[in-house]
Each structure stands twice: as structure tokens, then as C-alpha cells.
Design brief:
This protein has 314 residues and is of the alpha/beta class. It is 28% helix and 16% strand. It folds into 2 domains: 2-126 and 268-305, Quinone Oxidoreductase, Chain A, domain 1 (Alpha-Beta Complex); 128-264, NAD(P)-binding Rossmann-like Domain (Rossmann fold). It has a 6-stranded parallel β-sheet, with helices on both faces. A 4-stranded antiparallel β-sheet has the order 1-2-3-4. Helix 5 crosses helix 6 (154-163). The longest helix is centred in the middle third of the chain and has 11 residues, at 127-137. Mean pLDDT is 94; it is low at 308-314. The chain binds nicotinamide-adenine-dinucleotide (NAD) and zinc ion (2 copies). Residues 60-61, 64, 66-67, 75-77 line the site of one zinc ion (ZN).
């Protein structure tokens, strides 16, 4: 497919930090993209040249044992590596390019309705399904819950934006960056806390001293995961969304008695068709995630601009 719009994920920043060791030098990065089909492989029946599509960040052959249960993140198809769903911009060349080859295109691409713009659609490659599936669904958010989202980057904001689909009552956004906290309010955060000294007292004060029902880690740092476990009330859920490249300590001696559930995982993107319908019906404001627009040849400036504060080495 020809890439018309692509974007950078926080995971691309982890790659530059060395947190994703499987990446080979010279790999074209990028697992988010919207574009137009230019050529169709022999086994793809459902798509044709000229179709406007979103690429899922996860491959899905559609018929292996894991795909049949919706666990696309562990698709057993041979492309890239069997058992690893995230291959695009990881184990094979990705979307931060003019053209990309999409394996298992029949299941890994989604046809776009005309009313959905490229900028809206590119948020469905990864961040919206990730925030929803690994944050909200794995975190078992239920009506009336108090949810804390640690890290208000695109993925954290996506969790905030989709926590409303499960009728969360209170959504507390926690970040170091005041601008991102301001953004969080526009996506549905009801409270904001600046991550720093006193964050725990503030979260407790917002929850009658109880802690939250669901804490979602959307940074990818060991201390933030620990923060999520400390934010939870007994009986609560901790949903880790962040990609971790460093050892994370799990304090069983403190946690065992808390009756908490801890979940983690790679996005499956099996919620993408549902989320796409909500975007098409203007029930999910995907367009609000786009803040900076650059030409592809200026992609390194885009990496500099991404507020992950990481600069790729040339
Ligand atoms: N599990 C998955 O399938 C999956 C998919 C996509 C992304 N991810 C991961 O999700 C995470 C978030 O992605 P993103 O694109 O939003 O990244 P990002 O870097 O834009 O966002 C991280 C946010 O965390 C904030 N932050 C940093 N240190 C903090 C601290 N000490 N306390 C509070 N906030 C802090 C930053 O200010 C930023 O707003 C990354 O780790 C990414 O790799 C996971
Ligand atoms: Zn990603
Ligand atoms: Zn499969």
C-alpha cells in the first residue's frame, strides 16, 4: 500500500532507547498508517487496488489457533516470526515510508468509510485499540469505577477516551507534563494530578482515602508500574500497557494481601472494527489526537518533537 499518513508511537521511542532488542539496524520503523492499496497478493480476496485502508499494528492470519480466539497479538503465521503479532516496523519493514508490504492483508487491513479522515483513522492502527483493550478491557473497568491513568501520552489519552465506553465515573490523569494533563481533560479526565511529590496523597484525597478501582500504567517505566500498584484500592485492577525494557520489581510481600489483579499484554487490535464504527459515528473524537503535521522527509524532526524527550541518534 502507498502510505498517505503515518505516525510515531511511544514504542518507536522505546526502540531508540534500546528497549526492543529484536530490531535490526536499518529496519524501517512505524506500525501506524493509513494509505491506498497499490497491489494485491494472490490470497487476498476482500480488498482491491485503490481501496483506502488502515493498517493494524498487529498481523493476523485469521485462521491460526490464536487468531481464532481473537489473540492476534500471538498470531502463529510465519511472517516475521510465528507467535509474534507485532512484526510491522519491528521484524519486517514498517510504515514510516512511502510504501509498505502488508502480510495477511485480508485480516490486517481495515477498509475505511469515506467519512473517516486519515488523521482519525491513523489513531486506530494502535493507540485507540491499545488504550481500550490493554487498559480498559484488561483493567476490567465497570460502570461507576474510579480509574487512574498514569501517563497521558497518546496511549494514556486513548485509555482515558475509551474508559467512558465502560462508564467510568471518575478518571484521574497523572503525568509530569502539565500540557498533557490539560489535553487529558478534553478527552474525559475528570481530575488531574502532577506526578511528583505528593501524588499519592492527592490520589487518595480524590478517592475518599480508598485508592482507585483500576490503575492503568501507560508510560513503560518500572517506577510507574509500582505507582500503579500503590494507587489501587484492595480488590482493584492494575492494567499495565507500557512497554518495558528494564526489570520491573514485583513486591509480592506487599501485594499478595491486597487482592488485586494485575494484567498486561500486547494489543490484539480485535476491537478496531468496533472503534472504527464509533469514530465514523463521531462518538469517539480520534481527530483530537493529532497536534503536529509534518512531511515524511521531516520525520526526524517529528521524532524530536514527540514529547517523549528522546532524540534518535543519526
Ligand atoms: N501494550 C501495547 O500493546 C502497547 C501498544 C502501544 C504502545 N505501548 C506503550 O504504551 C506506553 C505509552 O505510549 P505513548 O505513545 O503514549 O508514549 P509517550 O511517551 O508519548 O507517553 C508517555 C507519557 O508518560 C509521561 N511520563 C513520563 N514519565 C512519567 C512519570 N514519571 N510520571 C507520570 N508520567 C510520566 C510522559 O510525560 C508522557 O506524556 C509506551 O510505553 C508504549 O511503548 C504499548
Ligand atoms: Zn505502537
Ligand atoms: Zn494467526
Amino acid at each position: 500500500m502507498r502510505i498517505d499518513t503515518t505516525s510515531i508511537c511511544g514504542t518507536d521511542l522505546h526502540i531508540f532507547k534500546g528497549d526492543v532488542p529484536a530490531i535490526q539496524p536499518g529496519r524501517i520503523l512505524g506500525h501506524e498508517g493509513v494509505g491506498t492499496i497499490t497491489e494485491v497478493g494472490a490470497s487476498v480476496g476482500s480488498l482491491k487496488v485503490g481501496d483506502r485502508v488502515i493498517i493494524s499494528c498487529i498481523k493476523s492470519c485469521g485462521h491460526c489457533a490464536n487468531c481464532r480466539t481473537g489473540l492476534y497479538s500471538h498470531c502463529l503465521g510465519d511472517e516475521g516470526q510465528s507467535g509474534i503479532g507485532w512484526i510491522v516496523g519491528h521484524l519486517i519493514d514498517g510504515t514510516q515510508a512511502e510504501y509498505v508490504r502488508v502480510p495477511y492483508a485480508g485480516n490486517s487491513l481495515h477498509l475505511l468509510p469515506e467519512e473517516v479522515s486519515d488523521e482519525q483513522a491513523v489513531m486506530l492502527s494502535d493507540i485507540l485499540p491499545t488504550g481500550f483493550e490493554i487498559g480498559v478491557q484488561y483493567g476490567r473497568v465497570k460502570p461507576g469505577d474510579t480509574v487512574a491513568v498514569i501517563g497521558a501520552g497518546p496511549v494514556g489519552l486513548a485509555a482515558i477516551a475509551t474508559a467512558g465506553l465502560h462508564e467510568a465515573a471518575t478518571i484521574i490523569a497523572i503525568d509530569l507534563d502539565g500540557n498533557r494533563l490539560e489535553q487529558a481533560k478534553t478527552f474525559g479526565a475528570t481530575e488531574t494530578v502532577v506526578s511528583g511529590s505528593g501524588w499519592k496523597e492527592q490520589v487518595l484525597a480524590l478517592t475518599d482515602g480508598l485508592g482507585v478501582d483500576v490503575a492503568i500504567e501507560a508510560v513503560g517505566l518500572p517506577q510507574r508500574f509500582e505507582m500503579a500498584t500503590q494507587t489501587d484500592r484492595p480488590g482493584g485492577n492494575v492494567a499495565n500497557v507500557g512497554v518495558h525494557g528494564k526489570h520491573v520489581e514485583l513486591y509480592f510481600e506487599d501485594l499478595w494481601i491486597q487482592n488485586i489483579n494485575i494484567s498486561m499484554g500486547l494489543v490484539n487490535t480485535n476491537s478496531t472494527p468496533m472503534l472504527l464504527r464509533l469514530v465514523a459515528q463521531q462518538k469517539l473524537p480520534a481527530e483530537k489526537f493529532a497536534t503536529h503535521r509534518l512531511a515524511l522527509e521531516n520525520i526526524l524532526d517529528a521524532y524530536d518533537t514527540f514529547p517523549g524527550r528522546l532524540k534518535p541518534t543519526p
